[in-house]
């Protein structure tokens, strides 16, 4: 079964039928919100809004462990994570979509592992390839099938937030090899790996990163919101199409 992580507005998208909502305690506390069992045509999936029902949870306070553990408990095997980002490189201009293949982690202080020596013995997972190759290939193949334009390579710089970055920080991330920047990519990806979940991110680029393009003198929340709304309709249509095609 597919698990989908994203924004609260997804369940309002036409064609989605909500079957039931699940609430339960996890070994790591409460998840961001209810886990929603939903259906699009003949395919069911589990959805959870990463930032909570009213987008009230900042990136550094999301209970990533509870969210990912809950998806696993409900029988999810493959996870699609929708994560808006800022664009750093020429291949990540606003209003494009990137399916990254690598991550740089600049976050700190987050509960980032289940192998903490308390609930589970210490284990060092291999994280050479942070995104599942098979699931990524399925998404990319489907994108080609339906002529959905996206970039199939990119390095996601996961930053702490909730503030946006300085131009100097973006310069640093670019020198490190990052092409996009966001606040929620870690520890979602590594927790998925620890739990044996196939995980891939689909990243709509909603703004130039600080110091780039029309963000050279600052970032406009108005532009970010406008681009986000424009891209989400297109992206959710693609994601739901993929879910309907999943397993065929």
Shape: globular
Total of domains:
1
CATH class category: Alpha Beta
**Biggest β-sheet strands, sense, barrel:** 11 strands, mixed
What can you tell me about this protein's structure?
With 248 residues, this protein is an alpha/beta fold. It has a single domain (2-245), classed as Nucleoside phosphorylase domain (Rossmann fold), CATH 3.40.50. Helices cover 26% and strands 23% of the residues. Strands 1, 2, 3, 4, 5, 6, 7, 8, 9, 10 and 11 form an eleven-stranded mixed beta sheet that branches. Strand 3 and strand 4 (43-49) form a beta hairpin. The longest helix has 25 residues, at 221-245. The mean pLDDT is 91.
Layout: helices, strands, pairs:
Layout (H helix, E strand, L loop, with lengths): L1 E5 L9 E7 L12 E6 L2 E7 L14 H10 L4 E5 L2 E3 L9 E2 L3 E4 L27 H13 L9 E4 L8 H10 L3 E3 L5 H7 L3 E11 L12 H25 L3
Parallel strand pairs: 1-4, 1-5, 5-11, 6-11, 8-9, 9-10
Antiparallel strand pairs: 2-3, 3-4, 6-10, 7-11
List keywords for this structure.
eleven-stranded mixed beta sheet; 11 strands; alpha/beta; 248 residues; Rossmann fold; 23% strand
